Amino acid sequence: MANPFQNTTYFNLTASHDGIFLWSAENLLNPQEIQYMVDRTIEHGGQVSYKTNTDGTESAYELNITLFDALNNPHNPQHATDVRRFLASQAIMLSLAGVPGIYIHSLFGSRNCYSCFEHTGRARSLNREKFQLATLEARLSDPESLTSQVFSGYKQMLRARQEHSAFHPHGPQQVFSIGDRAFAVLRSSLNGDRIVLCLVNVTPENISADLTSITSVLGHHQKWTDIITQTSFETPGDQPKFSMEGYQILWLTPNDM
After folding, report:
1. What is the pLDDT of residue 185?
2. What is the pLDDT of residue 2?
3. Nearest of 22, 15, 35, 179 to residue 102 by alpha carbon
4. Nearest alpha-carbon partner for 123 in 132, 108, 131, 112
5. What are phi and psi of 203, to 5 degrees?
6. 11-163 domain in CATH 3.40.640.10?
């Protein structure tokens, strides 16, 4: 994917203070998939905003819910899995070419603010909780809290992204199809001397990410390092496969580059 115009780049975001927009999904998702998102939002305690079409019908245009609760059912919390699932969603956004836009409530994994909604009567208030500094600091200082774990995971990815030249906003990217259980994109530095292979397991199950079909693009590297955790991996250069736990994120760079 190339930048749309010279000296420009993409602004990538998954959530904003207004909620999760559906307009941009109309040409990517079919009506049944969009309805699934609407139903899931309501099931997870959110609201849905509608627009009136020219023929008098209504269409959902905005999901009013925190992104964390859109992805994770607040009525059936599973702390460890919920954090991993949410960070996996953010890893995809952070790995794409362009500049990431991070809404503050995504940075801390905020839940729906029902008291805010009750106070204003506006659906967007669910995603607009005002932080109290002392409360936020207490959550961040507790390593077992959801807030602390999301923030810590986010910081790791941002630090790795900042330190690697392959994540330059104008750096090329190639998105690969390696099955429906993993997301894969290859990022390259502007002069092509550095690469990062970004892999995200988008399921809760353990998988084997088989990259054999794209070795002609990756090259025949055998030793890799995950730049987020500094974990080392070794695979046959002609049959690269990476075992991944549920919702695991790997940002891999070959050791010989």
Report:
1. 97
2. 64
3. 15
4. 112
5. -125, 160
6. no
pLDDT reported for residue 220: 87
The per-residue pLDDT for 6 is 73
What are the pLDDT digits (tens) for 97-111? 999 999 999 999 999
Please list the ranges in the chain whose pLDDT falls under 70. 1-4
d(CA 251, CA 162): 13
Query: Other CB atoms closer than 10 Å to residue 5's CB: what's the count?
Result: 7
pTM of the model: 0.94
Q: Which residues pair with 84 in a beta bridge?
A: none
In a 13 Å sphere around the CA of 242, the CA atoms on its Cβ side amount to 30
Paired sense of beta strands 99-101 and 11-13, if any: parallel
Q: Which CATH number fits domain 166-254: 2.60.40.1180, 1.10.579.10, 3.30.70.330, 2.40.50.100?
A: 2.60.40.1180
Domain ranges of the chain: 11-163, 166-254
Hey, do 11-163 and 166-254 end up sharing a CATH topology, with the first three levels equal? Answer: no
Instruction: Please report the pLDDT score of residue 3 as a whole number.
Output: 66
